[in-house]
Design a protein that fits this description.
The protein is mostly helical. The chain has a single domain, classed as Hydantoin permease (Orthogonal Bundle). It is about 70% helix and about 0% strand. It has 24 helices and two strands. Strands 1-2 form a two-stranded antiparallel ribbon. Strand 1 and strand 2 form a beta hairpin. The longest helix has about 35 residues. It is globular and about 70 Å long. The N terminus is likely disordered.
């Protein structure tokens, strides 16, 4: 190696080291501190570009992604319009994702700890618990979907599964409950093992999940006579009532839903990037893993569903139902393994890590990361996901509804960190109950007011989406259609306005590490 290249490598290393801030003062006596919420040390920041990319592959390859484009096609889009909408939505959400991720990598802080800078040391719990409730709902839904999928697969491999365990509890067969709580228990095992076990789960599962998806696509294309025939057949998936629907009428809500799919992660991404090796690792890892995998797996869902029209004479959009069509036990067993890993890797990363930290942040001295995870798992069951899934308008209610809440939080966070503080944080003060980010009483009323005012214009449209009652002008329905974009912009603008001249923004330079 030449002297020039050695100097160049050293310069890059030093530049990356400047990306990191490490906490040197002892704040362990603070009631806001515990070992799980403490900033990661530089030695703990070991996640590479592959680890971050694998995280997104593991979270994106899931049954709900497989069926996401199908919902757009059912509304009237063709296959390539649905793909472009999903790609655009995930590219858009990548922007706040990488912006919020920066603080995690630079300061080693988790999502609820970062929230203290904008919402206050106590007010952070409002935003964090809002995120946690959404995660609990998702945890329950994904666990139920996985349980039903595994239940069907077990029944295919062993006929006695359905007949021996057929008695009902609450109107649901016992074998379904058994599969559901079996999968739930496996997730609890990973929760107890901690975040490092999730890192290895994602990294090891990613190649298998991608391989399984591509193998399914190859099977569909070869059995149906080629990809050209498959894609031509996709037009048959559009219902007769939606064939003449104007694309531009359904595009806004579908795009917002595509953004909303990962709106939650765009706020709590510091929970993961606090372990990243560098800003380059987190940015490239996310760019490689998120939009590409989401679009690819959504395309696989559309292509395979279209192929089933040719192969079986009917569209089969549920991968579990399709798996039951295969007669070979080894194939069904392999497919069951893929579904198991897909649901497990998604749920553990997307719907456990954040609420575990969020619940821990409520009382760091009494609630650890593991205890927060167990609370998440319990609430996920108590929210009765089998009821949430009954007749739910998946795209236009669930995704749109919470995307508005997440958009406002993301807007406030990004405005605070990038525009007002210009990426400078006093790391120790994040754990000081009477310090810079306490705002006197622990509550930054400006952030809370910006949050409420940003969400308010979208509430009428959300109420109508839930109840179906035409009680608001079309203007508010239009705002709700763009809910994430509306609340993100309003949250950032209102917060910037309300924070003008705030003393916490005029702290001397030496106060920042």
């Amino acid at each position: 190696m030449s002297a020039a290249s050695t100097i160049s490598s050293a310069s890059v290393f030093e530049a990356e080291k400047r990306d990191f801030v490490e906490l040197h003062e002892d704040v362990s006596g603070s009631p806001l501190w515990n070992e799980d919420l403490a900033p990661t040390s530089i030695a703990q920041r070991t996640w590479s570009t592959w680890n971050i990319a694998a995280l997104w592959i593991g979270m994106s390859v899931v049954i709900t992604t497989y069926t996401l484009a199908g919902g757009m096609i059912a509304a009237g889009m063709n296959w390539w319009q649905a793909m472009m909408t999903i790609l655009l939505g995930n590219t858009i959400v990548l922007i706040p994702m990488t912006l919020n991720a920066h603080a995690g990598t630079k300061y080693g802080v988790s999502f609820p700890v970062l929230l203290r800078a904008s919402f206050g040391t106590r007010g952070a719990n409002v935003a964090a618990l809002s995120r946690a409730v959404v995660a609990c709902g998702w945890f329950g839904i994904q666990t139920w979907i996985a349980g039903v999928a595994l239940d069907a697969c077990f029944g295919t491999m062993w006929s006695g599964w359905n007949t021996t365990l057929s008695f009902s509890i609450l109107g649901i067969a016992f074998h379904t409950w058994l599969a559901f709580f079996g999968f739930w228990g496996i997730q609890v095992f990973f929760i107890v093992k901690g975040l490092e076990s999730i890192k290895w789960l994602e990294s090891l599962s990613a190649p298998l999940l991608l391989g399984g998806g591509i193998a399914l696509l190859w099977w569909a294309a070869s059995k149906a006579g080629g990809m050209g025939l498959v894609l031509n057949q996709s037009s048959a998936l559009i219902p007769t009532t939606a064939k003449n629907v104007d694309f531009w009428k359904i595009f806004p809500a579908s795009l917002t839903a595509a953004v909303g799919y990962w709106a939650t992660l765009s706020t709590n991404i510091p929970d993961f990037t606090r372990y990243a090796k560098s800003q380059k690792s987190q940015m490239f890892g996310q760019a490689l893993g998120l939009p590409t995998t989401m679009t690819l797996f959504a395309f696989i869902g559309v292509a395979v569903t279209s192929a089933t029209l040719i192969i079986y004479g009917e569209p089969i959009s549920d991968p579990v139902v399709l798996l039951q069509k295969f007669g070979s036990i080894p194939v069904v067993l392999f497919g069951t393994l893929i579904i198991f890993l897909a649901q497990l890797s998604t749920n553990m990363a997307a719907n456990v890590v954040s609420p575990s930290n969020d619940f821990s942040n409520v009382n760091p001295r009494r609630i650890s990361y593991v205890q927060g995870g167990l609370i998440t798992a319990a609430i996920g069951v108590l929210m009765m996901p089998w009821k949430l899934l009954e007749g739910q308008a998946y795209i236009f209610t669930w995704l749109l509804g919470y995307s508005g809440l997440m958009g406002a939080i993301a807007g406030i966070m990004i405005c605070d960190y990038w525009i007002l503080r210009r990426t400078r944080l006093h790391l120790g003060a994040l754990f000081d109950t009477k310090g810079l980010y306490s705002y006197g009483s622990g509550w930054n009323w400006r952030a809370l007011m910006a949050l409420v005012l940003a969400i308010a214009p979208c509430v009428p449209g959300f109420v109508r989406a839930i109840t179906g009652a035409k009680a608001t002008p079309d203007f508010f329905d239009g705002l709700y259609t763009y809910s994430w974009f509306v609340t993100f912009a309003l949250g950032a603008a209102l917060y910037a306005l309300l924070m003008r001249g705030n003393p916490s923004l005029k702290e001397p330079e030496e106060a920042f590490h």
